[in-house]
Predict the 3D structure of the following.
Amino acid sequence: MPSAPSLHDPALRDRAVRAARGLAPFDVLITGARVADMATGELREADLGLVGPLVASLHPPGSRADAAVRHHHPGRILAPGLIDTHMHVESSMVTPRRYAETVLPQGTTTICWDPHELGNVAGLEGVRWAIAAARGLPLRVLVLAPSCVPSAPGLERAGADFTPATLEEMLSWPEIAGVAEVMDMRGVLERSPRMAGIVGAGLASGKLVCGHARSLTGPDLQGFATAGIGSDHEIVSGADLLEKLRAGFTVELRGSHDYLLPDCVAALATLPRYPQTLTLCTDDVFPDDLVDKGGMIDLLRRLVRYGMPALEALRAATLNAAQRIGRPDLGLLAPGRRADLLVLSDLEGLAVEQVFASGALVAAGGRLAAPLPGATPPGLRDTMKLAPVTPATFRIAAPGAEARLRTVAQPRFTRWGEITVPVREGHAALPPEATMLAVLHRHGLAPAMPSLGVLEGWGAWQGALATTIAHDSHNLCVFGHDPEEMARAANALIGCGGGMAVAQGGELRALLPLPVCGLLSDAPTAEVAGQFAALRAAAGPLTQWEPPYRVFKAIVGATLACNAGPHVTDLGIADGTTGEVFPTLKE
């Protein structure tokens, strides 16, 4: 399918105006339903007439019957197509066309994609690939320029280094909609030349400048906004949500941290009205959840369950989002707007029965109306620049009889710890409750010497898990306790081009190959979801998973060095608060 047609064609407007006035027939007429009016908050009866990609008319029910195609939907609700204001296609582990196949029937018609993961692995080539892979899809894909490659300069090494000049180049491309989440909070607040230049390039372009303000509060939050950053999705509580709204941020309330949503809904209910700077995003959705539960539509359903009025949730996902991304053609069912619309069963269940994108019926009954044409662009398949490893790779050398080791003492909200362990045959002997995290640079820009860190609070591991999905530099990360098992899992990924692997009991228990950048597969989403579900099941017996923090998903964020506290990276144990890097072995 070609890219979305322009609404500025004079001939199109002429035809649409004539149809609106009753002087020409509509292309499509939708009757019998009520319209969810995002501007007024009304749920009102009206029929819709479409001409090409345009909504030409909303008019009294039954007043028109002239159309080439008619759809009658008594008792149904018409709403604008859903807009996901911040997400990473890579988190779903499938290529853009496979992602579109999955989310269009769910009602998502526009996404704002930060191809941050592809950029961190493949640099500008990765961003160009993202643009090419999104081209021609009925899903509208607004690609943003990754702002933090690497996410924490000096604390980790990625596969590229995006300077202010790199951002200026990307922002000059017409396909780039703005600067993706600015994650180097310390660099922004300390006015480092690098981050000041990157944010400045975004401001000079007149395009979006998006943020990542995890745990910022008070003067630091005010400073982050003053730097020119307009949004944040890193909400940690209801109080945090309100503080960021009051600081003028557009909040992209994300669905990937469900345990926070009830508190956020309760906080919003204390306000006199729902703010127009509230939008919704998925951020990260694993493939099995995307298939089984859904993306944006699942977030809407959960918010409604937690007490948010359905029309307010829809407004956040449509009109508010369209205003944030500067797309006045989207987010509202009104004459002259783009005909991205959903036919919903009701406001409680929010079952999506039909989806129109730019006036074309693209999905019905949970399926695409027609297969997506084209194929994924070639390239980005040789990114595991590592030789096979041995169990010796995963042993911490230490002199003497005892070794004092720095540790990362808990998942997610990390803090420093320390343990003293015996030394046996020249290597630190970790206790059963300590977990090793090995990070190996895989991009070929530095020696692939392993950085070995020790985690506390992750339970006693029986086996190993290896992943090349490791925010944000996506180096090869291996979790475990037994060097033999760790080597087995690591070598499986080195051999297949990246992905995720589980080893236990002397065997490779599960393997999810992701050959594109070690992040994506072009297999159908349901197939990838099945492989991922099998891998997640195989990971179940590895340790004692304890929600909400010690969960499987925490694996892929354990190296996120831009966040506060210690994190193991390919350079050592990096402190995102101070910008320092330390070895595991203390003198």
Q: What stands out?
A: The radius of gyration is 25 Å. The first strand starts at residue 26 and ends at 31.
